[in-house]
Write a structure and sequence with these properties.
Nuclear Transport Factor 2, Chain: A; 28% strand; 239 residues
Length: 239
């Protein structure tokens, strides 16, 4: 037994111990253990709810591109105080125009403004004639004629009318029918704040006026009411 290789046996035992240790440590992480079960994503989870019960995360999809950002706000109709001089003038107009009320008028002014700017962009002369007095219509038609000569095209998107504010009010006595030159019975000035994308391009799609960026516009339009109760635009100006 004196020549028995005890050193070889000792090294073999140590190798066996180390091999077992490596198997139990690495084997569990690499191949000796089945992969964890992954639950499939259900339709309820995609919709923002899960039937897995409390404690499970709720999966919600990101918003679509056209849903990003705050919702469009309602138009702000700014009315003067009744005790103010402007408010008293509006009360006098209510005695001249049957059924007049300031808030209903501003909604009508918003409607006329919307139709007018869109009709001007689309060169719809017939529509413009419905909303403009003859003098204002002539100015708009001159601009349309000039645009046609240049071969330019107007692009307009009225994104939002943010605010309408009555800034002036005037009662006008109508002239007799046989001498009628101006049949208006009242005029109201309205400051209109809107957000638009408005620009003109030439026949080669080169930008010649305006900007393709969303822009705030402030205009003051004067609306007049005829004796028959029809409202039209009698003047326009930059606010």
């Amino acid at each position: 037994m004196a020549n028995f290789p005890w050193d070889i046996v000792l090294w073999a035992v140590l190798a066996l111990i180390v091999g077992c240790a490596v198997f139990f440590v690495l084997g569990r992480r690499i191949g000796a253990q089945a992969p964890e079960k992954q639950e499939p994503l259900s339709l309820k989870q995609v919709g923002g709810k899960t039937a897995a019960g409390p404690g499970k995360p709720v999966l919600t999809p990101p918003p679509l591109p056209n849903q990003v950002g705050p919702e469009r706000k309602a138009t702000d109709y700014d009315l003067p105080a009744k005790e103010s001089s402007l408010g008293q003038e509006l009360q006098q107009i209510s005695g001249v125009v049957a059924g007049f009320s300031a808030d209903v008028f501003l909604k009508k002014a918003e409607e006329i403004f919307t139709h007018t700017v869109k009709a001007f962009a689309g060169a719809d002369r017939a529509a413009l004639a419905k909303y403009l007095t003859p003098s204002v219509l002539a100015a708009f038609e001159a601009a349309l004629t000039q645009r046609a000569k240049l071969g330019s095209r107007m692009q307009l998107e009225l994104k939002q009318i943010e605010k309408l504010q009555i800034v002036s009010a005037q009662s006008v006595e109508a002239a007799p029918a046989d001498e009628a030159v101006d049949s208006a019975v009242c005029r109201l000035g309205v400051k209109i704040t809107s957000w638009q994308v408005s620009y003109c391009e030439d026949d080669k799609a080169v930008l010649i006026e305006g900007t393709k960026a969303l822009t705030e516009f402030q205009d003051v339009w004067t609306f007049e009411c005829d004796s028959d109760g029809t409202w039209k635009v009698s003047a326009t100006a930059v606010g």
